[in-house]
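Could you help me review a protein record that somebody else here produced? Do not assume that whoever made the record got everything right. The record follows directly below this note.
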Amino acid sequence: MSFLQEVNRRSGEQVQLCFQCFKCSLGCPVAFAMDYLPHQLMRLIQLEKREEVLNSHTIWLCAACETCTTRCPNGIDIAKVIDTLRQMAMEENKGTEKEIVAFHKSFLDTVYHLGRAHEVGLMALYKLRTKRFLDDLWLVPELVKRQKLSFRLSKVENLGEVKKIFKKAALWQK
């Protein structure tokens, strides 16, 4: 299976419909920091440039705001394609933005185990993954004072349903 076919199958989108109108890139609020603009990323997929795409900064810098998706005249859910590329990059242990990958994995782990985001747990996992334990420790007292950190662990009522979603997403990705 070609890279384009794999991305199409896993994302449920048709990347080949992109005709390079640039509307996605013109609306992207983080385009200034990307190595490939969204329309360029779509073209690289069409050209079967697997390594360039999965090792790009773009897939990790995307804010998932869906502006690109909204602007696409062909109805391609570009944000969904980029999210699919993130998953593929993680599976292949690729990704140039190691700290963003660590945050992404930590976020998903907390949601999987609690059914919701938990800031303290998320940051603890992130710190363990990056081994940057003291970088922003000075922020903790102010966050506690403003009641922005909850140390209480609470799970959603039906955690089994959340785990089913993860299981279904894992099957869908293959």
